[in-house]
Specification:
Radius of gyration: 21 Å
Number of helices: 5
Structural class: alpha+beta
Strand order of the largest sheet: 5-6-3-10-13-8
Number of strands: 19
Order of helices and strands: EEEEEHEEEEEEHEEEEEEHEEHH
Helix content: 10-25%
Largest sheet: 6 strands, antiparallel
Distance between the termini: 61 Å
Strand content: 35-45%
Amino acid sequence: MRNHEIDYKIYGEELQCVEIELDPQEAVIAEPGSFMMMNDGIQMETLFGDGSNSGFMNKLFTAGKRMLTGESLFMTVFTNTSSQKRQVSFAAPYTGKIIPLNLSEFGEKIICQKDSFLCAAKGVSIGIEFQRKLGTGLFGGEGFIMQKLEGDGMCFVHSGGYVMEKELMHGEILKIDTGCIVAFTQSVSYDIQFVGGIKNTLFGGEGLFFAELRGPGKVWVQTLPISRLAGKILQYGSGTRREEGSILGKLGDLIDGN
């Protein structure tokens, strides 16, 4: 293997964390802010890019690609510098599931949404994947750029809510809300389709476009995109109570002192 070979264990149900066990001199890379805890003997280092390339220009280029996906220019590397096994843990940023992916089982490449990466064995490359079709780029929710994970090691991505795995046969099509896509294998074709119909467009409440994923390949789907969760929080934070009706909503506001 080119990448470091790591062992892991995932804890929790809805608010999960992953514990990585490192042998001496093994290392794991992680997004800034995902660190939870670690044993003594692990050295933490912040660097440009993902640690998979050597040389200043390669590091600068990798950091620039991460900036295009909306991520930080820096990654954090945790290396076991002791002579014994040590553990380091990382936590998901919001409620959902952590998905372990062995890249060697998926053609050494996975395409995922831009903010789903959590951590990976050192040597895994975190880059960008351009969507070549104009419609996909403009209306796909993730824009022209998605994230790609390449290598032959373990990596971990997180989803919102519950995660479902779908195995698509050759030519099989899955139509899905664009925000519900977590990741898919490189053999899956990704496109955007217009919902169609005046009533669907004006009153459907599901947006104008949905994603069309065509097999063969594997797809990971999340039930609660972070954008949908944030929208609901903003809606309830505004003081409106749509589910209670206009009269009861006002009465509830009065009782609450609003």
